[in-house]
UniProtKB/TrEMBL annotation:
SUPFAM superfamilies: Zinc beta-ribbon (SSF57783). Residues 162-202 form the TFIIS-type domain. GO terms for molecular function: nucleic acid binding; zinc ion binding. Signal peptide: none annotated. This is TFIIS-type domain-containing protein. It comes from viral metagenome. PROSITE patterns: ZF_TFIIS_1 (PS00466), ZF_TFIIS_2 (PS51133). The keyword Transcription regulation does not apply. Keywords: Metal-binding, Zinc, Zinc-finger.
Length: 203
């Protein structure tokens, strides 16, 4: 029987497996880089005179906000995906327009609040609610909405009678109003509502 054996030199095999891989290392960070990101960061530094550290921090916040939005809405996390790129550009445009004091939005204080007063760190700006970004514009709207909700859900003391008792909860806090629903020669109808349990009835 002819046995063909291949003889290996042990030192060569050790060197072969200890040698560094010739495959170039791929950093995950390289997939995060894009010309749009660099251009926006440079625009913040050159046009708004934000320090490089703050501009980088703000841009990272915008990038992270874009990723969170994309994950929520099942958008592919790739710069080749137009939806992902558009999301990044829209968030960037919104932030830039709010920071620029002479823009059409008219947010005069945001730049000062972020850069001078240090009310918040730049990377939190993309995550802030609109009423926190521009409180001067939203205060009136929020106050009107709160007033409307208060009026809708607040108990109004209306005409009440101690002589009417709710059949469900036996409370005497019953509001009523009288309405002529039939012809003029017939008696009007009383519409009643218990202010405690909400039961409505008429008689």
């Amino acid at each position: 029987m002819n046995n063909d054996f291949k003889i290996y030199k042990l030192s060569d095999q050790i060197d072969k497996y200890n040698a560094p891989n010739n495959i170039p290392e791929v950093s995950n960070n390289q997939y995060n880089k894009n010309k749009v990101r660099d251009d926006f960061r440079n625009m913040l530094i050159n046009n708004l005179f934000i320090s490089e550290l703050e501009a980088t921090d703000l841009e990272i916040g915008i990038f992270n906000c874009t990723i969170d939005y994309a994950n929520t809405n099942k958008i592919q996390l790739s710069w080749k995906c137009s939806l992902f790129l558009d999301t990044y550009i829209n968030i960037s445009r919104s932030i830039y327009s709010n920071l620029k004091s002479n823009s059409y939005i008219g947010n005069q204080d945001l730049y000062k609040r972020m850069v001078d007063n240090k009310e918040f760190v730049p990377h939190m700006l993309p995550y802030m609610q609109c009423h926190n970004v521009f409180p001067e514009r939203w205060n009136d709207i929020i106050n009107k909405n709160n007033l409307r909700l208060k009026e809708a859900y607040e108990f109004n003391i209306v005409a009440m009678s101690d002589m009417i008792t709710c059949m469900r909860c036996k409370s005497k806090k019953v509001s009523y109003y009288e309405l002529q629903t039939r012809s003029g020669d017939e008696a009007s109808t009383l519409f009643m509502e218990c202010l405690i349990c909400g039961k409505k009835w008429k008689q």
